[in-house]
Amino acid sequence: MAFSPDLLEILICPACKAKVELTSDSTGLKCVGCRRVYPVRDDIPVMLIDEAVVAD
């Protein structure tokens, strides 16, 4: 899966409005503020708070 840097630049966490980064295994987007991880399904980020999991 390849995310363009431009797309990652504009995506923000819907919960706290902080920047998100691609996880090391490329299966999700992790918020740098509240540490929620939003899943990526079929190369589409699912930016719904109910779908996110809070990382340790």
Offer a concise description of the structure.
This protein is mostly beta strands and 56 residues long.
What attributes characterize this protein structure?
1 helix, N-terminal domain of TfIIb, 56 residues, five-stranded antiparallel sheet, mainly beta, 30% strand
Structure report:
It is globular, with a radius of gyration of 10 Å. It has one helix spanning 5-10, and strands spanning 20-22, 28-31, 36-41, 44-45, 53-54. By secondary structure, it is mainly β.
Low-confidence stretches: none
Main beta sheet, described?
Answer: 5 strands, antiparallel
Q: Cα-atom Rg, whole angstroms? A: 10 Å
How many E strands?
A: 5
Helix/strand-derived category reads mainly beta
Helix content: 10-25%
Quote the average pLDDT. Answer: 92
CATH A-level architecture = Single Sheet
What is the tally of helical segments?
A: 1
Distance between the termini: 24 Å
Give me the strand/helix succession. Answer: HEEEEE
- Total count of domains: 1
Shape: globular
How much of the residues is beta strand, in percent?
Answer: 25-35%
CATH-defined topology: N-terminal domain of TfIIb
- CATH C-level class is Mainly Beta
